[in-house]
Design goal:
mainly alpha; 21 helices; 3 strands; 2% strand
């Protein structure tokens, strides 16, 4: 019969094996989700097509000028331009490989950041690395994934600086902070939070903890004119946020995500406030402060800016919550941490798998059908107008096409032209002439949209906007434009649905009818 110390060692070894096995399962599951998205994502949806078009502009100066019409700094466009230097890399498959590499980097980032914070990665793999939104948004051809990876590294490295790390740690934290804000402007909010939290827990030399934040801020100075030019159009996409509607929408598609995030935030706050013999110090205090404040800061920023609260904007807060939860559970037994990770995995596995298997768009199928059937005498009508980046990427047919409202042809999304269309408000007459001309020469009208015309309610013509345009004005005009073209087509044409969302479902954001 083994003695007590030997038995304890055997039990400890068994528990370590169990933790390692669960960690391995979570790692394989997370990598599998990223691989599944790579296989299923398909064509580029409009935001991705916008990024690809920006990276393909003829010159570097053209990319810099285009920043005034986009919502991100130059970092991602520059990286994507370098990637697309080879023609195959600029193809859909080549770009999806770039996205898959970003996803692999994210998984490695969550693992490495947890280790830097003194944790064995379990909960962070289940809650962040395998989160369906992290997978689909992180691996998309947009800056969110690389921006999130750099931000998470900044968080972990600033923690090491606060713990008294030397110049190498400080330089790494500053570099990661600069990369973060060069990929996503709003990363500056979190970098500032990291620096202030690091000052709170720093072991001497607190001024050093501010260096990463200062470096990030200085790197944004060249964007002063770009940001000023963005103000020419940004007001039309800003409006009063309806948080109740937002939460209802998230609950419809991501109910489990919402539950897990709420539970994680509540748990982290409770952990930080729990009475204990010795107060939180060091990395534990740093992680608790950041994880508890990340979500409220993001909400406050969106409320103050009047920006639409898309779920992808909350991915940094989710990632920081996951790392904070990992640090909080590090105080508990290994059995509790392993059980928590398994519960998250079992609860989220099917919703995550279902979500990452969706195609991002069916616009390529629509464009292919048009290329085979549309004739030069026909006209293709694309509504709403913002579908044009993805449609333009794939459509090669002989028939001319227009957007509703009719805007100048450009590979990128330009809200400034939409703002001008709201001011001019003469698109109705031009549209009538287009439709009558096509019908007079015996052509067909092809309609590409997110909804069928008969499902669109009648919307009265908006009153002329005031001196200052708001997001509410844009919402009224967009509703009218969509309703108006639907009514005109129903009045003059017999409808035949050529393509509808079919057995291979696409994300509802760009699941199109033809």
């Amino acid at each position: 019969m083994p003695d007590a110390p030997e038995a304890l060692r055997e039990v400890a070894a068994m528990r370590l094996t169990a933790r390692t096995s669960v960690s391995g399962i979570l790692l394989v599951w997370a990598l599998g989700l990223h691989a599944a998205f790579f296989v299923s994502a398909g064509a580029l949806w409009r935001d991705e097509a916008n990024s690809a078009a920006q990276a393909s502009l003829p010159s570097w100066s053209g990319i810099w000028q285009s920043l005034a019409h986009d919502s991100f700094p130059a970092g991602y466009a520059a990286l994507l331009r370098l990637w697309c230097a080879h023609p195959w890399n600029a193809s859909d498959t080549g770009l999806r490989v770039f996205g898959l590499a970003t996803g692999m980097l994210l998984v490695a980032t969550f693992w490495g950041a947890a280790r830097l914070l003194g944790c064995r990665p379990l909960v962070v793999l289940a809650l962040a690395a395998a989160d369906p939104l992290v997978v689909t948004e992180g691996d998309s051809i947009r800056p969110h994934g690389l921006g999130l990876a750099c931000l998470v590294w900044t968080f972990a490295l600033c923690g090491r600086v606060a713990e008294g790390g030397g110049l190498a740690w400080l330089a790494a934290a500053a570099a990661a902070a600069v990369l973060s804000v060069q990929l996503v402007y709003t990363s500056a909010l979190y970098v500032a939070l990291f620096s202030l939290a690091a000052v709170l827990v720093a072991r001497g030399g607190r001024a050093r903890a501010l260096v990463p934040g200062a470096a990030a801020a200085l790197s944004l100075v060249p964007y002063a004119r770009v940001l000023a030019r963005m103000r020419e159009w940004a007001d039309v996409v800003h409006y009063r946020v309806d948080w109740l509607s937002f939460l209802r929408g998230v609950a419809t598609e991501h109910a489990m995500d919402l539950i897990l995030v709420a539970a994680a935030w509540t748990g982290v706050v409770a952990w930080g406030l729990r009475p204990r013999r010795a107060p939180l110090r060091g990395l534990s205090l740093y992680s608790a402060v950041v994880a508890a404040l990340a979500l409220p800061i993001q909400v406050a920023f969106l409320e103050a800016a009047g920006a639409p609260p898309f779920p992808r904007y909350f991915l940094p807060a989710v990632a920081l919550l996951a790392l904070g939860s990992e640090r909080a559970l590090e105080e508990r037994s290994a059995r509790v941490r392993t059980a928590a990770a398994l519960v998250i995995l079992l609860a989220s596995a099917w919703p995550a798998w279902s979500w990452v298997r969706l195609r991002r768009t069916n616009v390529d199928q629509v464009a292919r059908a048009l290329g085979g059937r549309a004739q030069p005498a026909d006209l293709v009508v694309v509504s709403p107008w913002f579908l044009h980046p993805s449609f333009q990427r794939y459509y090669r047919g002989p028939a001319p096409w227009i957007t509703i409202p009719e805007l100048p042809r450009d590979p990128m999304t330009r809200y400034l032209w939409v703002k001008r269309a709201m001011r001019e408000d003469d698109s109705g007459e031009r549209l009538r002439e287009h439709l009558e001309s096509v019908l007079a020469r015996g052509g067909s009208l092809w309609y590409v949209s997110q909804r069928l015309p008969e499902t669109m309610p009648a919307v009265p013509r908006p009153t002329p906007p005031g001196a200052v345009l708001r997001g509410e004005d844009y919402a009224r005009f967009r509703a009218f434009w969509e309703s108006d073209i639907g009514a005109r087509l129903l009045a003059c044409c017999r409808f035949e649905v050529t393509i509808a969302p079919g057995p291979e479902p696409a994300w509802r954001e760009e699941s199109l009818f033809l």
